[in-house]
User: What shape does this take?
Amino acid sequence: MPSDGPVRRARPAPPPPSGRGRRSGRGPSGRRRARRSRRAAAGGLIAGVTAAALGAGGWLVANGSEDTAPPQPSAAQGFPVRRPGARPPGAPPLPASQPVRVRVPSLHIDAPLVRLGLAADGSLAPPPAGNRNLAGWYGDGTPPGATGTALVAGHVDTRAGPAVFYRLGSLAKGGTVQILRKDGRTAVFTVDAVEVYDGRHFPDEKVYGEAARPEIRLITCGGGFSRARQEYLGNVVVFGHLTGSQDAAPLPWARPRPDRFSARNAPRTAARSASPASPAW
Assistant: This one.
């Protein structure tokens, strides 16, 4: 949906400050209220992300070709339909520290991170659209590497062309996401699944529910583009968990090639998943 034009926004509840729901009482009734509170808070966050224009679509409309559409994950990259017996082993959590950069080596993503807050209507504010190689993290949530669910969001495109998370839908299970932090450590996450969801049926609890280990979600727009509505129809979400860390100081940050986001080297559309896999956890 256009990031510099009218945006239809819901008025969601603000996301939980720590990335977790708050307890509202003791006993069964208190637990039920807490679960409802977590679902409401998570639903508010995803409504904000969807309405935050993580893809402007102007570039896609201007090109007028499905070949320029961002790649979407196939069903094979999603969670298995049957619930696995155990989660993959993870690394011990890191102390909380501000993230400063996100890297996805297999996709050649190397982008600075800005802190994202809330817009006036309570939705999650998007990263500035002026810099296409820029992503953001929800600053009132869990810092990547600490225990909980951390959120990183980025544009799929802007009116100027493909943006930082344009290729996110082509990421494969088992891939690596690196988060460089202010303390000099790099949190290393392994990708568990990459799924695409229709915005009308977004599984907020699955994506934003509290986690007992360090986990991360990368999110951008996807699920097809409506020319009539001038907006993307859903979201691509990458799920990952912490599997290690690097204590060495990060290398100097590489600048993207000037033609990185040109139409000439834009990838062809990948096969799309008609029905995303069922929740695994």
